[in-house]
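Example record

The entry below shows one chain as it appears in the dataset: sequence first, then C-alpha cells.
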Amino acid sequence: MEEIRQKYNRLARWYNILNALPEVLVVRKLRRRLLRHASGQVLEIAVGTGRNVRHYPQTCQITGVDFSPAMLEVARKEARRLGVKTRFLVMDAESLAFPDESFDTVVSSLTVCTFADPVAALREMARVCQADGRILLLEHGRSDREWLGRWQDRRADRHAMALGCRWNREPLDLVRQAGLAVVAARRVFFGIFHVLEAKPLSPAPS
C-alpha cells in the first residue's frame, strides 16, 4: 500500500493530464450521468483530484477520502475553485473510520483497479452505507471484447507497475464477491467501462 501511496503522491500534479483523453472521450459524460443519482450525505472513496466534485447535485453534503495527501491537496483546490463545500480526509478505503450506515450515498470512480484488496474496500463501502442507500460505481476493467481483453492481460503487470492500476480486473464480479446487491449495471466503450448501482445487503457484509 505504501508503494502505491507514494506513486500517487508523485503523480498527483500530472494525474489529470495523464487521464485527459479518456476523460474527454467517455468518462466525463459517465460521471455526470451517474452522479445525478447521488443524494444526502455522500462519501466518495478515493476521491483523487476531485474530478467528480463538479457533478454532484448542490443539495449533497460531500465527504471525500483518499490515502494520498498530494491527491487530496489537488482536490481541495478544485473544490475551492468551484465553490463546492467538501470535507476531505486522508483515509484507507479498506478500513474506513466511520460508523456503520453513516452515509446515504457512497461513490467510487476508477478506483477498484488500484485497491490492494478490492473486495475488502467494497465491503467497507457497504458497511458505511445506509441500508436503503445507494453505492454508485464508475469503474474500468477487462474488456468483454476478447481480443482487447487479451491485450490488456498481456500488459497488465507493466501498466500496474507504472500507474498502480490493475486494468484487467472484473468490477462486476468483485461487487458480487463483496456481497453487494446489484441494482443496475451496464458496460460501455468496448466493454471497458462499468456503470454500476448497488446497495448493501441486510445485514451489510463484515
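Notes for this example: Strands lie at 41-45, 61-66, 86-90, 103-109, 129-140, 181-188, 193-199. The first strand starts at residue 41 and ends at 45.
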